[in-house]
Fold these 4 entries.
Entry 1:
Amino acid sequence: MRLLTLATVLAFVAQASVVPPPVDDPPAGVNPTSETIVLAGGCFWGVQGVYQHVNGVTSAVSGYAGGAKDTAHYEMVGSGRTGHAEAVQITFDPRVISYGRILQIFFSVVHDPTQLNRQGPDEGTEYRSAIFPGDTNQERLARAYIAQLGVARAFKSKIATTIEMGKAFYPAEDYHQDYMTLNPTQPYIAFNDLPKVADLKRLFPDRYRAKPTLVRGR
């Protein structure tokens, strides 16, 4: 995670806008009280930090997805040769927030889905934009939504987000959990991630929650 220049930060903030919600966003299925999805959108500090402020999210855990269990370690993932992406496992109550709204926030404020294998100052396949569906229904809805955004030309460039089925999630080391909340003055967090939370509050005021849901339960 490298430090962003102020100009890059301001450019990203200026671009943040709400994309259309999914046309196909059915109500909760067989487990109507809890659902889980794994999303990757650059450094997991910011992805986790945003979703911890989303009303209806009951847990957001930083980790790795896309590779093998024995390579799910920060130093190894950073090599870019493990197949892993820095990812966040998001558990939410579909009675409060739908899967479609989770994806809408992902594409609107969490990251730039048109960037291939990078986000901001971070480069490499471990920073790719990816959705790791928990089941075939989540996969179908994600593919349909990406196609919908493409037809609507919601972005100036093609969406680079991959959909990767059958990939396990492995929690990251303890020191990565709740990193944004615990280190708000750390330069990378202050310049790169806190503006995303501000965008969440600005663009999704009905979904924003001031008190984050933390892994450590504070």
Entry 2:
Amino acid sequence: MPLLQILDLHAEVSGKPILKGVNLSIEAGEIHAIMGPNGSGKSTLSAILMGHPNYKVTSGDILWENQSILTISTTERAKLGMFLSFQYPTALPGVTIGSFLKTILKAHRGNEIPIKEFKKELKDAMTSLTIPDSILSRYVNDGFSGGEKKRAEILQMSLLKPKLAILDETDSGLDIDALRIVSEGIVKTHSKDRSILLITHYQRMLNYVTPDFVHIFADGRILETGNKELALKLEEKGYDWILGKAIEL
């Protein structure tokens, strides 16, 4: 049974159609990369998967372990095991990273976590991701560099241990070194029980995170699916090649 199934999904925002028949199936442990140009609907797809209220599903379905999740809230989807890493993480001045992580972990698990247990889990995750202890006293994303914001999100993912991590353009705004560090963090948190849906413009992140499947997304739907070689082909030919196919359809 697939972990996630997207079935002929159509959606709109403010009456404007964005998704125009998306079909996708993700098994446990798989890494899927979605690539496409600006405005193609990639980020809309990630928002709809997490239940963003500004987007309206007009037809189709989203199944989580064979059960429709269209009517459940974002919080309930997160508790099922879905996680979304934002392209532009929000700053929370006045809220320290340490306090924030403890709060979200309690909310996710539904009970208070003993301090000793929390500290050990946090220390193990930070050591694995080579994140310094000094980050814990800083306010969430306040004054963070692009790389620090993305590493903080991967730290959240490492603690929450989601069944499916949706990473929306995690490579956006990262320099070469930050891209490598963040990508290595993603690989470390992946396992046979945890799937990843990686949304990106560029092939460069796939040099570090090797996908099982690459999907080319344009005009609100998936136009072609392949392996990493498809991403290299796209890098060589550009998006005009695939946009031509969208026009033909």
Entry 3:
Amino acid sequence: MQEYQEMQNFYQNRYDENNRMDRNPLEYLRCKEIISRYLKDEALKVADIGGASGAFSFWLAEQGHTVSLLDYTPLHIEQAKEKSVLLGVELYSYDCGDAKHLPYASEGFDLVLLMGPLYHMQKAEDRFQCINEAHRVLKKGGIIVCECISRYANIFEGFQNNLMSDEKFVEILEENLASGMHNPQDTGYFTTAFFHTTELLKSEIKQADFSFIDLVPIEGFAQVLDADNWLSDEEKKETLLKYIRKTERIPELLGISGHHMIIGKK
């Protein structure tokens, strides 16, 4: 449980997750775009598991979907309740809890989002239990959407931000590449995490008896660009998004993306 305590302390006391999507607009745009491919005209029952302060929960609720939000960090649930008042949008429920032990009845949801839990679980058995719980609470035919961090994300982070002269960072990076484990030790880098390969992602979804539907890079080739510059102008933004979509099926480019989204069906 130590890694979860470290993770909770990171989000509770050190990192502003509440505004992360504002700081990463391309990731947020692409996540919403990909999730939208699995929405229907009618209102869905959605579980946003590990949904932090509800960036995706409120976006979906504003479209008329019934959303239950769960997160491990108490601060995030408090922030979600405050955000509900500010936005004038109410979620169905707000729970502080563990993604491996969901407080929901079986077969109650049309869509489950795991937009963070899988990259905070270093043990394979914990990830399986998390995915299996999502399977349990989904209706037959329901969809699971998971976001994960790429095994190679820190290579780009290191070179783009001039971190390769930091011996501690290089040590962390070497462990990332060798095993997927991300252990920040006594540094100020990202908290305890696990970085997936695309093949491992597919195998973990299938292991929990989901039918594999799709695996999509989120940022795609734009991971290596100054994406904010391209997003600052509407015409440039549409050009960027057009070519991310156009190249999202090219296997050779998958590893460039900092995040991937995998979709399965019960």
Entry 4:
Amino acid sequence: MIKAVVTGATGRMGARIINILRETPGIELSGALERMGHPALNKDAGIFSSGGHIGVAITSDIEQIIGGADVVIDFTSAEASMENLKVISRAKKGIVIGSTGFTPAQMDEVRELAKTLPCVLSPNMSVGVNVMLKVLHDTARILGDEYDVEIVEAHHRLKKDAPSGTAMKMAQVLADALGRDLGEVGVYARHGIIGERSKKEIGIQTVRAGDIVGDHTVMFCGMGERLEFTHRAHTRDNFAIGAVRAALWVAGKEPGLYDMQDVLGLK
């Protein structure tokens, strides 16, 4: 039985992950983490999901619970994930990270720490989104430079980072397939007299409104036709299911930085 620690245990994602863990054979919750001073500390982690008591108390001390775990599932923030990753790397445990908003410097540190532990890092754990990433790469490679590429993403009004990590991953996949440098061709806003669209640019546009869980549309626009791929998340459970699947996969793996494409065998 794989034993998992969930960080951000009372958050929107943490609570759903705990609920999915209850329903998944071969893995169980062994620890739950929240920030120091959180009102849920010392309470049963199960009461914040839909399943009731689970017999695991919430703590703020990851050092206290990491020894009895095989893998940590972390959906918090880039800053919190970095601190957790340092502790977990010393303990030589596995980790699944779904946090977004990492800076280039933080990503460099993640790659260095991943030399000491198995780490799955993905901005979107949805199986559907990761199949879509594979399709986008193949489509862009086939269509080439004759089709303009635009990404539109929409999320709830509380989301802090923009564009979403998923939109940026899509943009990077497209840029790689087209042989472009995203840092040079990414366009994140348009306003006023902007002139003709350049052939190489990749547009990434953001919507924040209401309680949208997550919508991503990629358009390949040619002369006389348009090809669109859309993924709409109706519930956070699809992210939680993917995260638990990744935790089952990464436990016991060799050190390295992996993503959901590895977990799903799409590479």
